[in-house]
Amino acid sequence: MASNPNSLEPTITDPEEIQQSVRQLDRSTSWFWWNSIMLLILLSATWAALSPPEFLVHYALSQQLDLNSIGRGLIAVMLILNGYSLYHQRHLERFRHRLIEQMEAAVKQRVRADKFYGLAILDPLTDLYNRRYGEECLQKEITRAERHGYDLAVIVMDLDNFKQINDQFGHAAGDEVLKEFSRHLKRAIRACDVPVRMGGDEFLVVLPECPRENVHIILSRLKPFEVIVNRQKIVVSYSRGRAQYQVSDTSRALIQRADELLYAEKAGRSTTANYLATVDAPDS
Q: Under a CB-based contact definition with an 8 Å cutoff, are residues 145 and 151 in contact?
C-alpha cells in the first residue's frame, strides 16, 4: 500500500520526548557530579587521617610511616584522577546545554517548515489538498502504476446547484457547505487516498492501489447531506465520475474519462428543487 500522504506530522522526535531524555541526562549528570564530589571529600579526609601531626613522627614509626606514604601517594593519584573526571563532567554539562539549544532550535525550525509546507499544499478553506499538489500526486501514482502494475483510480465530484446556494444563502453558507462536504469526503475515503479541491466546488480523489470494486465501496459512502444555515436546512447532493487507470494513460486522459461520467450523471439529474431543498430547521 502506498504511504499515507495525508500525514503532515514532523518526522523529528517529539519535543516532549526530547525533554524527557534531557531530564534523564540531567539526573545522570547530577548523580555523577555529586558522586565525584563526595568521593573527593572522602579521599581528602582519608589523606588527612593518614597524615599524623609532626610531633608523632619518630624513628619507631618509620616503617609504618613508609606504608602511609605509599597509601598517601595512591590516594593522591586518585584525587588527581577524580579531579580530572570533574573537569570532564563540567565539559559534559556545557555540551549538554549546547545540545539542548540545538535540539530546541531544530524542533522549532522543523515545526515552522511543516507549517509552511502545509500552507503550500493545503486548501485553506476545506483543509483538503490543493490542485497543484493533487496533480503532482496523481502523476507520481501513474508512474508507480506503470512501473509496478498497481491498480489506480480517480474520482471527480462537484456539488449540484452550488451557485444557487451562494446566490440564495450567501457565500458564507457556500463556504460552510464546502467544509461540510470535505468532512464527509474524508470519512468516506481510505487513509492512503488523496482528497483534492481542484477549485470552486470541484473535487478530485486519487485512489492508489485501488481496484474497481473498492471504488464502488467508496462511492457508496458518498451520500447527500444536510447543512443548517440561519435555521434553514440545505440538502446538498453532488455528482460523481470515476475512472480506472489504463496502460499509457496520462493524468489528463484519466481525469477526462472521469469527467465524462460526471457530466453524464449531472445531465441525468433534475435541476429542480428536489436537489436543493430548503426547509425551516426545527428549533434546537
A: yes
Q: Which of these, 203, 223, 206, 224, lies nearest to 215 by C-alpha position?
A: 206
Q: Each residue of 144-157: pLDDT tens digit?
A: 999 999 999 999 99
Distance from the Cα of residue 11 to its chain's centroid? 7
Specify whether the CB–CB gap between 153 and 243 falls below 8 A.
yes
Are 219 and 261 within 8 A, CB to CB? no
Question: Does the pLDDT value for residue 272 go beyond 50?
Answer: no
- Would the pLDDT of 83 be above 80? no
Distance, in Å, from the CA atom of 134 to the CA atom of 202, rounded to the nearest integer, reads: 12
C-beta of residue 242 within 8 angstroms of C-beta of residue 256? no
CB 130: neighbour CB atoms within 10 A? Answer: 18
3-state SS string for 18-61: HHHHHHHHHHHHHHHHHHHHHHHHHHHHHHHHCCCCHHHCCHHH
Q: How far apart are CA 202 and CA 160, in angstroms?
A: 10
Q: Would you say the pTM of this structure is higher than 0.70?
A: no
Catalytic residues: 201
Mean pLDDT of the chain: 78
Q: Decide: 161 and 272 in contact? Cβ < 8 Å.
A: no
CATH superfamily name and code, 131-280: Reverse transcriptase/Diguanylate cyclase domain (3.30.70.270)
